[in-house]
């Protein structure tokens, strides 16, 4: 018969409940079991540790399931922070390896940067970032869209290759979509700079070579990568566990440059490594971080630049005041409480997806695919990307019965050469059973029967859109007053300033060569409360890396 003292009552089943019951049986202390359950549960919020009160820390310190860093307990207590053993190990590995790289510096010492030729037009902040990359073994370059991050990377590559033509260089990004964008941008810069070749650009999973369990990798401390310098773009998307495994696989003397936007969303998985490293005192004291702050994409003082600034400051009053202005040309706000919201949404869908849906070849569809994307805060519910994808598809197929359908890959598959985030198209009159994907300058087809992990991509979550650019962006935020559903019980948790900033800055407008007019814009469907919620709530994840 079970001892009722050893059975902890929990309201929801799950991993945290299993841990609670295990800890309770091991230590027969319900208070300890409850705290351990909370430590597991907070990973759903993206944290890697649980802050404790002094009383809670004292209680945990006396438990056999908790130990110091050198012990064998399931949990590790550091000060007033409680970690799972796994998260503690990951954070410790990242902290120690970064500290070692920062303090060692690069072997070559300082390299003078030319002021002529390809380097003549560099801004002061770009030159500072370039100097850091060629001087330090570990560097961070952060900056918003259009600040010249790829521009600066390309010139660093040129400079170091002139010093060492045989330099073993790698380029990577967390997702296939981000890697493809980096590759395209680097190829453009290579033509300008006269570089004969650029490093192979790949995802982190491909770089490290996933094992069949998709958790461990072929490259690690005992089988390091054959690289002398690795550049990782969109680094804000890297989770704590992935960063630990990446650093573990780097050779001792390899340089590492992390590139990203510190204001963007953190990784879907636990941790906010890029943001923590940007704030780390050791990194800043050694001059290993540089911020690019002059955007070429968004005109200084222009609509996107101004609105992004208000959001980053968390100023909801100025953000809403700007959105409600009637003379804006690029940013358009549709309050969900207004009667004509549905009509405006349907009109936008018909107009902005029309060019894509008229295409009858894979090449044409792939080229038009980034004309517009709907970006959602959530996946489920009436304001989620799943329902909006079906809505757009039905509406456009009434007008174009054989219109192309965009699909996004949601899982890496090295055997098929596809990555999470890759987007392709299916054309009924071309190859109804195949997904057409970009493959360099051409296209390739992959049988749909082999792609079980995919989803329609007229709309996607804002997280999935990181590393992407679209001429037009439709942002859909659920109203705060919306009824919570079983599918999305905590949708309000997703509404943060990082979410809104990331969605807004996915737009990349163009200039019409004939008329000189700006093509593209941002269309926000939300209510005032949702906008306020985003601006007033900054993402807070419990971590200890920056301390």
Keywords:
19 helices, five-stranded parallel β-sheet, disordered N terminus, 17% strand, globular, 547 residues, 22 strands, alpha/beta
Per-chain topology:
Blueprint (H helix, E strand, L loop, with lengths): L14 H13 L2 H12 L7 E3 L2 H8 L4 E2 L7 E4 L2 E4 H20 L19 H12 L2 E6 L5 H15 L5 E5 L2 H18 L7 E3 H5 L20 E4 L7 H9 L6 E6 L12 H7 L1 H5 L3 E4 L10 H11 L2 H8 L7 E5 L5 H12 L1 H4 L4 H7 L3 E5 L8 H15 L5 E5 L13 E4 L7 E6 L2 E6 L6 E3 L2 E3 L10 E5 L20 H8 L5 E2 L6 E2 L1 E6 L1 H9 L11
Parallel strand pairs: 2-3, 5-9, 5-10, 6-7, 6-8, 8-9, 11-22, 12-18, 12-19, 19-22
Antiparallel strand pairs: 1-4, 3-4, 13-14, 13-17, 15-16, 20-21
Helix pairs in contact: 1-2, 4-9, 5-6, 6-7, 12-18, 13-19, 18-19
Write up this protein.
Strands 7-6-8-9-5-10 form a six-stranded parallel sheet, sandwiched between helices. The protein is globular and about 65 Å long. The protein starts with 14 loop residues before the first helix and ends in an 11-residue tail after the last helix. Mean pLDDT is 87; it is low at 1-13. It has 547 residues and is an alpha/beta fold. Helix 4 packs across helix 9 and helix 12 packs antiparallel against helix 18. The chain has 19 helices and 22 strands.
Short description:
The protein has 547 residues and is of the alpha/beta class.
């Amino acid at each position: 018969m079970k001892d009722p003292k050893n059975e902890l009552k929990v309201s929801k089943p799950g991993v945290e409940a299993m841990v609670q019951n295990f800890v309770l049986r091991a230590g027969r202390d319900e208070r300890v079991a409850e705290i351990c359950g909370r430590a597991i549960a907070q990973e759903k919020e993206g944290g890697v540790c649980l802050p404790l009160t002094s009383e809670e820390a004292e209680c945990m310190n006396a438990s056999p399931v908790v130990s110091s860093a050198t012990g064998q307990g399931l949990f590790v207590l550091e000060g007033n922070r409680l970690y799972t053993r796994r998260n503690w190990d990951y954070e410790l590995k990242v902290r120690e390896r970064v500290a070692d790289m920062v303090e060692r510096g690069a072997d070559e010492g300082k390299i003078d940067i030319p002021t002529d030729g390809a380097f003549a037009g560099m801004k002061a902040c770009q030159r500072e970032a370039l100097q850091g990359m060629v001087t330090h073994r570990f560097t961070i370059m952060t900056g918003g869209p259009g600040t010249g991050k790829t521009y600066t990377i390309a010139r660093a590559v040129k400079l170091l290759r002139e010093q060492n033509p045989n330099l073993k260089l790698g380029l990577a990004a967390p997702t296939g979509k981000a890697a493809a964008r980096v590759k395209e941008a680097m190829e453009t810069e290579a033509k300008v700079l006269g570089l004969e070749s650029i490093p192979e650009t790949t995802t982190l999973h491909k770089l490290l070579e996933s094992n069949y369990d998709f958790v461990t990798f072929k490259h690690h401390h005992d089988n390091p990568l054959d690289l002398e310098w690795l550049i990782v773009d969109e680094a804000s998307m890297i989770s704590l566990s992935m960063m630990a495994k990446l650093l573990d696989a780097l050779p001792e003397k390899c340089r590492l440059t992390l590139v990203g936007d510190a204001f963007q969303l953190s990784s879907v998985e636990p941790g906010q490594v890029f943001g923590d490293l940007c704030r780390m005192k050791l990194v800043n004291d050694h001059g290993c971080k540089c911020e690019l702050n002059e955007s070429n994409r968004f005109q200084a003082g222009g609509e996107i630049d101004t609105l992004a600034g208000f959001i980053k400051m968390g100023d909801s009053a100025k953000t809403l005041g700007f959105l409600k202005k009637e003379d804006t040309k690029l940013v358009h706000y549709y309050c969900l409480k207004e009667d004509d919201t549905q009509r405006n949404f349907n009109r936008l869908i018909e107009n902005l997806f029309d060019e894509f849906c008229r295409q009858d070849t894979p090449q044409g569809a792939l080229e038009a695919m980034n004309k517009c994307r709907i970006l959602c805060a959530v996946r489920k519910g009436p304001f989620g990307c799943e329902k909006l994808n079906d809505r757009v598809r039905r509406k456009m197929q009434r007008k174009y019965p054989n219109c192309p359908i965009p699909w996004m890959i949601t899982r890496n598959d090295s055997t098929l050469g596809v990555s999470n985030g890759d987007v392709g198209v299916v054309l009924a009159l071309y190859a109804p059973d195949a997904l057409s994907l970009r493959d360099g300058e051409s296209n390739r087809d992959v049988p749909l029967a082999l792609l079980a992990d995919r989803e329609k991509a007229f709309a996607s979550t804002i997280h999935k859109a990181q590393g992407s650019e679209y001429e037009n962006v439709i942002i859909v935020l659920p109203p705060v007053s919306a009824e919570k559903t079983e599918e999305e019980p905590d949708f309000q948790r997703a509404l943060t300033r990082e979410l809104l900033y990331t969605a807004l800055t996915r737009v990349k407008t163009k200039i019409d060569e004939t008329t000189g007019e700006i093509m593209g814009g941002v269309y926000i469907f939300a209510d005032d409360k949702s906008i306020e919620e985003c601006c007033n709530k900054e993402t807070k994840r419990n971590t200890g890396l920056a301390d």
